[in-house]
Amino acid sequence: xxxxxxSWFDEVLVKLNLKGSFPKKILxxxxxVGGIASYMAGWMAGNGMQVRILDGANRFDxxxxxxxxxxxxxxxERILKRILIARAFTCYQMATLIERLSSLGGEIHDPPFRKxxxxxxxxxxxxxxxxxxxxxxxxxxxxxxxxxxxIGREGVSLFLFQPSLAFSFSFRKGRxxxxxxxxxxxxxxxxxxxxxxxxxxxxxxxEFRVTLVKGFALKELYGPDGSSF
Length: 229
Description:
Helices cover 38% and strands 20% of the residues. By secondary structure, it is of the alpha/beta class.
């Protein structure tokens, strides 16, 4: 059974002041973010917003999205009609979807009051494919971040939800004996640097613990040796 989301997350959404001027690149990172992203999509759609989802982690749950409809006594189909979802299974697909994001529903360039909200679920997950070389991954990833930044400057709010990664953030030894950071860790570092605001989510005793990190320095998140993960 999933831990309850509505009590604390409704408060978070209100604090984000979605209809005001708020940082455009907001990252939720940690445990249970698939369900949280799905609930957020339902919350937005239930409040009359158009939502665009790019799912690179295959974590979107329409039942969680429609749970807001039951709370608000709104027909679930009304909420789901306001949510447009596209899934990416490779880094190439994710990069292409981000590049073409303005064509999703044709509304990215609408006036501010009609602009959709964009949810990126698992933005770095497709880039972890070991069959794709580092030489290919990083230009694609940086190009995707550049496009996300451009969309944010167009007045579109983007919410990034990155699930906890399957692999540990330990260092492995390279041929020279020096510590070599894993691709996962380096991609996550880059995503943290890129985001305007970061919420770290952990699950303790079947309850979510949410930490808002403002104006962070990477050493505050990682510690001197990266052990704070």
